[in-house]
Amino acid sequence: MANRASENPIITPAMVLPSRPDFEVLGVFNPAVTRHDGQVVLLVRVAEAPRKMSSALAAAPIFNADTGRIEIKRWQVTEKGPDVSDPRLVVDNGKTWLTSMSHLRVARSTDGIHFDVEGLPALVAANAYESFGLEDPRITHLDGVYWITYTAVSHYGIGTGLASTLDFRTFERHGVIFPPPNRNVTIFPEKIGGLYAALHRPMPEGLGQHSIWTARSSDLKSWGSHRLVATPRDGGWDDTKVGGGAVPFRVHYGKEDGWLAIYHGVTGSPPTYSLGALLLNRHDPSRVRARSREPILKPEAPYEREGFFGSVVFTCGALTDGDLVRVYYGAADGVTAVADLSLQEILSGLVEA
Amino acid sequence: MANRASENPIITPAMVLPSRPDFEVLGVFNPAVTRHDGQVVLLVRVAEAPRKMSSALAAAPIFNADTGRIEIKRWQVTEKGPDVSDPRLVVDNGKTWLTSMSHLRVARSTDGIHFDVEGLPALVAANAYESFGLEDPRITHLDGVYWITYTAVSHYGIGTGLASTLDFRTFERHGVIFPPPNRNVTIFPEKIGGLYAALHRPMPEGLGQHSIWTARSSDLKSWGSHRLVATPRDGGWDDTKVGGGAVPFRVHYGKEDGWLAIYHGVTGSPPTYSLGALLLNRHDPSRVRARSREPILKPEAPYEREGFFGSVVFTCGALTDGDLVRVYYGAADGVTAVADLSLQEILSGLVEA
User: Fold this and answer.
1) Torsion of CA A273, A276, A280, A286, to 10 degrees
2) What's the 3-state SS for B122-137?
3) Which of A148, A245, B62, B120 has a CA-to-CA distance to B284 between 20 and 30 Å?
4) Å from B120 to nearest chain A CA?
5) For residue range B308-335, what is the model confidence (pLDDT) as tens digits?
6) How many DSSP H helices and E strands does chain B contain?
7) Tell me, what's the pLDDT at B200?
8) pLDDT at B79 over 90
9) Answer CATH for A9-52+98-352 from 3.10.310.40, 2.115.10.20, 3.40.50.300, 3.40.50.970
10) What is the DSSP string of B80-132?
11) Contact B224 A177 (CB under 8 A)
12) Position A52 confidence tier, pLDDT thresholds 50, 70, 90
């Protein structure tokens, strides 16, 4: 059903210059996508780490908001600690650090398959809310402006920031719009009932699950009217967590239009990330009309099954043209890939909610 | 330093009629406070549970949004489960239920010490976000309206709802303003720099701590510009969690006014909840000027040390008059108490942040 590009993965770390000479690029993945100036523009997440000098040393890059610089924190790895059993983390005295730091970078293409990645970052850690980096952007073209949501990671938690650009050359930040713990924010591409709308994914522990919520706004910067949209479902490919993926788009379905939201679902341990779709009420996006029974894309290709973090397909954006739904996605937290899906096939795989 | 009322506890479960004959009142605590119509008005949290019929049965009250009624879910307690080791919870197949449900009720007083508790609830569970009840209200009098924030608890998580009233007889809801996991929301009693302001307390796990944040709004219903205010501090009475308490009020401090925010801090296991104060910049409440070195109130009286959940003093509101800061608080999650503090003593106990 999903027609993966034969060129996959279409962007790999080898195509990306590190942001500084002592860093290496570990992954280039989870891109936002839009059309701009006759081109397909991606905003890719580039994960970097300090070049390894010794296996007896652990290192974590961190932006210091007081000095305005990225510093490298290093630990001697001994039996007593720190805990480096998860290669993504250093846990020292109960405090967690990330071994890599992500920034966002622009890539451009005329055919949507072959991309040139810019030599320099577009958005890098610049304040205390981003001290561990920026991840997983989404772009919504609205009122002539490209609005970018991104995950802002720091010792304060995992929240969502908002930025905007007109040209993908200069960017303006608009602060933290969803406080930690909240990520996977996608802004709808038009107002609904006079207000902007977004999907977001709070991360409660104990009471509550990692579910998809909606919120409304009059200015894109302040959000309210939070409502639950969809929870994990028992026993299947999305039984542990769900979160927004691609920016929702309008589709015909049954007697009236709806919003198609491609989302990710998680199951198992270690987790498998797959993609499905929600069909939301056109006038009230908190109401689910239908939902994919089975994934529309799941990790099957070698670059999806094996990588920095295997068994992951994760989308932050898609382009549509008639029946074509071209999904850009991160594979195994390491590379960027693209797959063409049929809108009618996605819709026919939905079951009523 | 804290001068507890000799009448403490000033409200006990024996003073409160249950909301239905098969319920018993377990606690009446954590009141919001304001002045209205020449009286001191409290909005108290009333925690109730189904009357115990057998120790072999566990029960959890839950509001069913489909039927609009409170239902009682019951379990046979066997060795295989459910887990009832924490008397506040029933954990069944990994899903958590509460053994009690709280609603909000009005109490009135002419002297601020002797209260009449209304016979009927003011705000009870009424939608899916409140299916486990409403907790820990705060009242802010603003633009002629009493705005009430409250914790909305359900299987969706622990979030914060907004309601308003003009007369404490009829109430209007305004939805979920801070999605789970987020509680302890206090709205400042005037606009700051043209925008409303609030303190809130997100609850991230892993990355991030249970810290106090601020947010801004133009309408009290949509919130943005989230910024960190204060985290737990190592090694003291507030080293595990901190959260907003009383609605902040303006004070003179040094060369310019600031906002005094009485907050709660948590330490230890089982936890001890004490109160301290933050002195915030008048024009930017995300900036802490000073902070209590030691608690201004900590569990010492018998009704604070022992109760439904011992070693807790927890405030949702205070009244001020010159040097007098009259703090209303919940004690041991069971009763309501009041203590008079000296503003100058609170201020002299602050250390620069």
Assistant:
1) -20
2) CECCCCHHHCCEEEEE
3) A148
4) 28
5) 889 999 999 999 999 999 999 999 999 9
6) 2, 26
7) 98
8) no
9) 2.115.10.20
10) TB-B-SSTTEEEETTEEEES-EEEEEEEEESSSSS-EEPSS-SB---SGGGTT
11) yes
12) confident
- CB contacts < 8 A (A, B): 135
Q: Is pLDDT of B55 > 80?
A: no
Residue with tokens 């209200």: B137
Question: Is B280 within 8 Å of B288 (Cβ atoms)?
Answer: yes
| B151 Cα to chain A: minimum distance (Å) | 13
Query: For chain B, how big is the Rg over CA atoms in Å?
Result: 19
Omega of the bond leading into B50 within 30 degrees of 0 (cis): no
* Side chain identity at residue A31, one-letter code: P
Closest by CA position to A197, among listed A176, A174, A226, A173: A226
The H-or-E segment that residue A3 falls in is strand A3-4
Of B309, B300, B252, give the one whose Cα is nearest residue B274. Answer: B300
Contact B298, B237 (CB under 8 A): yes
Reduced to 3 states, what is the DSSP secondary structure of residue A6?
Answer: coil
Residues 6+ apart with CB under 8 A from B112: B40, B319, B326, B338
> What is the total residue count of chain B?
353
What are the residue boundaries of the structural domains of chain A, listed by start?
Answer: 9-52+98-352
- Tally of CA atoms within 13 A in the half-sphere of A274 that contains its CB: 22
pLDDT in tens, A55-96: 788 999 999 999 999 999 999 999 888 999 888 899 998 889
Amino acid at B280: L
Amino acid at B189: P
In single-letter form, the type of residue at position B128 comes to A
Tokens coding A295: 């994934």
Interface contact B175-A217, CB threshold 8 A: no
Average pLDDT of B126-141? 98
The predicted-structure confidence for B92-115, as pLDDT tens digits, reads as follows 988 899 999 999 999 999 999 999
| Tokens read off for A157 | 């938690």
Report A:168-197 residues touching B (Cβ under 8 A): 175-182
Tokens of A149: 């949501």
Residue of B152, B207, B45 lying closest to A228 (CA atoms): B152
Please give the structure tokens belonging to residue A211.
């579910």
CA dihedral sign, ordered B250, B252, B257, B259 = negative
What ipTM was reported for this prediction?
Answer: 0.95
Radius of gyration of chain A measured on its C-alpha atoms: 19
